[in-house]
């Protein structure tokens, strides 16, 4: 029996997948086999009676390909145009795959304003609750098309943790292109050691998060550690794991010992809005 056995009893789960995990590195085109497996695993979790929210990046990456651009535009309006085209295409693929498994998916696009304004926050929470009660899988992204620097979360690691706190999830899983957290960048330092479990996010852990994101997504390890702080303070466990083999997601959900686990430690003074304001001052 694994000491992570309890993970299989989680009821409300947020799963986040980053852009670099959704596309083939060589071409930038969608990795359909991987996405299909993700959808099948999520649907099966729902079939077991669990509630799952998917936070998916990829709008800009898919839009870049759809518009035949060779690289990410270097101006905001260009990125926003890519997101407008890409988000719709991405949802078309998700809708098709979820429909094949007889599961209904919904789209929720958010900006930071959705969370700052108490009425919108309340409405967003009620909508999530309603959809989850109906057995629908909400698929969330930042509303990149209208977001501005002032109202953007900026990265979906943070957004997924905020969503986890908003819906009172008990588990957040970040699917990425690394096996988890290392003491240093394993690509550059062969002596970097894998961190299995994080009980407390101290300065030592924060220092391990330094490093850039990928060429297509915005998050790096440091945004994942910030996400862990929000998620674990809100009472959810968080696991970072590799999306390269989607079967590992199934294993994580069965309580197998895979990826880095950040342990939940409910903070009785947790007020989601404080974390959103903190995030705001960082920009
Ligand atoms: N919202 C962005 C997109 O869908 C991704 C942000 C991120 O990579 O974290 O393209």
Overview of the structural elements:
- The protein is α/β, with parallel strands linked by helices.
- It has a single domain, classed as Carbamate kinase, CATH 3.40.1160.
- It has helices at residues 19-22, 32-47, 59-66, 76-100, 112-116, 118-133, 156-166, 203-208, 221-234, 247-253, 272-281, and strands spanning 12-17, 51-56, 105-110, 137-142, 171-176, 181-182, 194-195, 197-198, 237-242, 260-262.
- The strands form two sheets. The chain has an eight-stranded mixed β-sheet, with helices on both faces.
- α3 (59-66) packs across α4 (76-100).
- The longest helix has 25 residues, at 76-100.
- Bound molecules: glutamic acid.
- Glutamic acid (GLU) binds at residues 18-19, 57-61, 83, 141-142, 144, 155-156, 217-219.
Note the topology.
Layout: E1 12-17, H1 19-22, H2 32-47, E2 51-56, H3 59-66, H4 76-100, E3 105-110, H5 112-116, H6 118-133, E4 137-142, H7 156-166, E5 171-176, E6 181-182, E7 194-195, E8 197-198, H8 203-208, H9 221-234, E9 237-242, H10 247-253, E10 260-262, H11 272-281
Parallel strand pairs: 1-2, 1-5, 2-4, 3-4, 5-9, 8-10
Antiparallel strand pairs: 6-7, 9-10
The structure holds glutamic acid.
CATH architecture: 3-Layer(aba) Sandwich
What is the number of E strands?
A: 10
Shape: globular
Question: What would you report as the Rg, rounded to the nearest angstrom?
Answer: 18 Å
SS field, number of helical segments: 11
What oligomeric arrangement do these chains adopt? single chain
Strand order of the largest sheet: 3-4-2-1-5-9-10-8
Largest sheet: 8 strands, mixed
CATH topology: Carbamate kinase
Euclidean distance between termini CA atoms: 44 Å
Structural class: alpha/beta
- Cofactors, ions, other ligands: glutamic acid
> What top-tier CATH class fits best?
Alpha Beta
CATH homologous superfamily annotation: Acetylglutamate kinase-like
Mean pLDDT: 91
Instruction: Output the helix-strand order.
Output: EHHEHHEHHEHEEEEHHEHEH
């Amino acid at each position: 029996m694994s000491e992570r056995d309890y993970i299989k009893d989680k009821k409300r789960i947020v799963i986040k997948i980053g852009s670099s995990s959704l596309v083939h590195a060589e071409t930038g085109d969608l990795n359909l086999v991987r996405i299909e497996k993700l959808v099948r695993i999520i649907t099966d979790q729902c079939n077991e009676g669990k509630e799952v929210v998917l936070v998916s990046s990829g709008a800009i990456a898919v839009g870049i390909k759809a518009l035949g651009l060779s690289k990410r535009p270097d101006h905001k309006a260009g990125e926003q145009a890519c997101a407008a085209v890409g988000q719709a295409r991405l949802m078309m693929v998700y809708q098709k795959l979820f429909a094949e498994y007889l599961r209904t998916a919904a789209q929720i696009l958010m900006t930071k304003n959705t969370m700052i304004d108490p009425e919108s926050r309340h409405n967003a929470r009620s909508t999530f609750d309603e959809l989850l009660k109906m057995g629908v899988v909400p698929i969330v992204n930042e509303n990149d098309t209208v977001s501005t620097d002032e109202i953007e979360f900026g990265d979906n690691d943070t957004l997924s943790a905020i969503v986890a706190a908003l819906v009172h999830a008990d588990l957040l899983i970040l699917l990425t292109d690394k096996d988890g957290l290392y003491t240093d960048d394993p690509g550059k330092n062969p002596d970097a050691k894998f961190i299995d479990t994080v009980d407390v996010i101290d300065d030592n852990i924060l220092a391990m998060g330094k490093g850039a994101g990928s060429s297509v997504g915005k998050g790096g390890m440091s945004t994942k550690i910030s996400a862990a702080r929000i998620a674990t303070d809100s009472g959810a466990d968080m696991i970072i794991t590799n999306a390269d083999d989607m079967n590992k997601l199934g294993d994580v959900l069965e309580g197998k010992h895979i990826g880095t686990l950040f342990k939940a430690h409910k903070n009785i003074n947790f007020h989601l809005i404080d974390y959103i304001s903190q995030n705001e001052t960082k920009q």
